[in-house]
Write a structure and sequence with these properties.
With 99 residues, this protein is of the alpha+beta class. It has one domain (15-98). The chain has helices at residues 20-25, 28-45, 71-74, 82-88; strands at residues 15-18, 51-55, 62-67, 90-95. 14% of the residues are buried. The model has no long low-confidence stretch (mean pLDDT 96).
Length: 99
């Protein structure tokens, strides 16, 4: 995992999506390990930036884990209704070139 570049109030506590490319090239165990690292970081730091970057040690492929909604966004009823939060509260795991 690359260091976080900024602090934030993203908690990666919604649903999750994995792109087809990541799902076919990584094992379920590798994906679970990435998610576990993100969850541990968020728990230890009481939130995080919206973006985590993982870089493969041998071939430098980058995987992004991107959260859609921060806690402050979800807590702002003028910005997001409960229905919006339900629909948009998810994070995505994808290769950097898929972004």
């Amino acid at each position: 995992m690359k260091p976080q570049e900024q602090e934030g109030d993203y908690f990666f506590n919604g649903g999750s999506y994995v792109t087809n490319n990541v799902a076919t090239e990584l094992t379920k165990e590798e994906i679970a390990q990435i998610v576990g690292i993100v969850f541990d970081y968020v728990k230890q730091h009481n939130g995080a930036d919206y973006l985590f970057v993982f870089e493969h040690q041998t071939d430098q492929r980058k995987i992004y884990v991107i959260d859609q909604l921060s806690k402050s966004m979800m807590d702002d009823p003028e910005a997001y209704t409960p229905e919006d939060v339900k629909e948009y509260n998810y994070f995505t795991i994808l290769y950097s070139w898929e972004y």
